[in-house]
Amino acid sequence: SLEPALGIIENSSEIQPPAELVNRAARGEVKAQRELAKFYNDQGKFKESSDWYLQAALKGDAEAQRMLGIAYTFGQGVVRDMEQAGKWFLLAAEQGDAIAQRELGKVYGDQWKFTESNDWFLKSALQGDAEAQRVLGLRYTIGQGVESDRSEALKWFTLAANQGDAISQRELGKYYGEQWNLKESNQWYLKAALQGDVAAQHMMGVRYVFGQGVEVDVQEAGKWFLLAAEQGDAQSQFSIGQRWVRGEAGEPQDFAEAAKWFSLAAEQGLDEAQLSLGRRYAEGTGVEQDYVEAYKWFWLAQNQGKVQGAAVALTEIEAHMTPPQIAE
What we know:
Shape: elongated
Number of helices: 20
Order of helices and strands: HHHHHHHHHHHHHHHHHHHH
Structural class: mainly alpha
C-alpha cells in the first residue's frame, strides 16, 4: 500500500532535536529536559513533550510543572485530567509561577470555589498577570467570592487595560459610559475595538450613530458595525441591514443586501432582525415574496414579546394567507 511508503518519506523529513540537547536531557539536566519538551511541543509531538516535561517537573522545575498542568488541561500527550492538572499547577504556583497561579485560579473557579480561586488570581495579579487582573475585575464587578466593589474592579481593570487587555479596556469603556464620562469611555472602547473586540466595535458604531462623546458620523458608524457584523455580532448585522434599507452614507438602497444581513441576525434570534426579514418576505423586496416565510419570521419576533410592530405585522399578513399556509 502507499501509506507506509508515504509514512517513511514523511518521517525522513521530520526535524530532529539537536543530539547534544538529547544527550544533556538523558543525563538528567533539568533545563535540557525542559528545552527538549518545548522542542517536541513545537513539533506537535505532545506525547514526547509531556514525557520530558514530567522528567523536569519531578525534579521540581516550576515551568515544567506548569506546562504539565496545561498538558493535562487540554489532553495534549496525556489523558485529560483536571485533578492532575490542578496538582501540577499547585506545585508550580507554590513556587511563585504567575501563570500557574492564574491557571489554578481557573481550576478552583470551575469548581465554584471562588474564595480559593480569587486567592490564586490575586497572587498572579500582584505579579502583573493581565488576565488574572481582568478576572479579579470581573469578580469584584459581580461579587463572586468577594463583596461587589466597583472601585476595586476599576483598579484591576485599569491595570490589565494598561497592559493591552482588550476585555478590560471594553469593561472600562462600559464603566465610564455608565458614569456619562463619554470621552473617557470612547477612548477605552476604541482601544478594545482596534484589537478586534466585537462588543467594543459595536459600541463605537452606536456612539457615532448618536454622537455620544463624538460627532455624529454615519459613515464611521457603518465601518465599526461592519467589523463587528463580520465577526457575527447580531445587533451589528441588523444595523448593517438597516443601512442598506435606508441607503445611508452614500450607498444606494439594496434590499437584497439588507435581507442577507437581517437573515444572519434573525437566525441568531434577534427579534428586530426577524421582524425586518419578515417585512422583506412580505413585500418581496430583496427576496422573492413568500407569505409563509414572512409569517414565520413575524411569529418568531412576536413570540419574544419585546419588539413593537410584530403582532400587527402578523395580523396583517394573515389576511393574505390561506389556512393551509398559516398551518405551514
